[in-house]
Write a structure and sequence with these properties.
The chain is mainly α. Helix content is 75%, strand content 0%. The chain has a domain of 46 residues. It has three helices and no strands.
Length: 96
Amino acid sequence: MRKLLPVIKMEIVVVILIGATAGRLGSIIYKGSGLGLMGNIFIGILGSMVGYLLLGKFGINVGSGWSGNLLTGVTGAIVLLFILNIVFGKRTKKYS
């Protein structure tokens, strides 16, 4: 059990890094306003789950390893940002 603990900690760090990167890339590609570091991590991690489920339903495999996880996360983050934009609408500042 003790030998497993560093591996689990490293996996959490990897999930956060991939989530942050996927969320940031998703917000850049979708042209949304940045949600900040924590928002990007949250959107990226949720987006990875959405991307995994969505791509799995259609039988699409984008690869394995870091690149496959990142592409899946970015795809899911874009879908998630699109849905959030529909639900909450765009918040734009109007200058007079």
